[in-house]
Amino acid sequence: MSHAALSRRQWLASSSRWLAASSCLLATASQRRSAMADQAEEPDTAPTYSDAEAFDWQFGMKLETPVTFTRGLGTFAVPMDWPEQVVTIASRDVSGPITHLQMRDLQGGARQAVIGINRMRANQSLNVLLNLKIEKRNILAPTETDSLVIPQRVSRELRGYLGNSPMIDATHGKIRQLSRELDTEAADDTSGWQTVRRIYDRVREEVAYTEGPIRNASDALEDGKGDCEDMTSLFVALCRNADIPARMVWIPGHCYPEFYLEVLDGGPESGHWYPCQVAGTEQFGEMQEDRPILQKGDRFKIPEQRQVVRYVSEYFRCDRVGSRSPSVRFVSQQKHDEQ
């Protein structure tokens, strides 16, 4: 039996041992906060950050089963640290016949909790709930952008943010045609920042925001309409055609892109990722957003799945005895103080 309790769209709409990983998070939280606060030496071309604000979130899995099953495996994504956020495990609620718990980082920008269950008897239940303190900062645009350029040499790590990804068909004919038009228009651009801004403006001109099913970036361009995923995918595809590394950023209920530039003659050490809001209120090079970052990227290889995926969804499978199925509910919600 294989069961994915929440699809990516449902989520948007609404490896070390576990103990060692969580202890590390708790032990180094103050160091990470200190690093976030220390921006004195950052150049004017770098993004800067507002003061942090703390939010309480809960992520996890609840399971009840009317039948006995064996070889159960459940996974769910857990927010991780980024320059604009620090994640600390405040507490855990773990109960039931759990064989092992692990934290697993996926290449590209996502972290999973992995739950193993050797055997679970009929009418048993289990909970794995993580209560997280997430300190989030808004990203402020750089004050100097004239010297920001498209990287001349792309590292192996950054090459993962070029080319095609699931639903980001950067090599599609229509996307390449628009990219050539933009390249001609950008002939007089004096910075990579101007080039990316040109792509940003064109996507917002060409595609009207409309809710709809998940589609390829080329479909949004051809139809002239799409939602936040479609518009973000198109922006990423056009950036990649211009040799600009770009990726998707996933938050509860929304997604937006980031693009990568370096300082002229500064090399990889001068490079930074910059966000923008393609669908919704205009934000370019900045991001005013309190919701936590769930994952960054759009090309993930998950051990339990054969195909590369653009989003790391929740997952559960088991070998059941009988015709009925376990009931699995994945939790991802902000916790508010009780009045």
Automatic annotation (TrEMBL):
Database matches in InterPro entries: Papain-like_cys_pep_sf, Transglutaminase-like
UniProt feature coiled coil, ranges: none
Pfam families: Transglut_core
Domain Transglutaminase-like intervals: 220-280
Superkingdom of source: Bacteria
Name of protein: Transglutaminase-like superfamily protein
Originating species: Allorhodopirellula solitaria
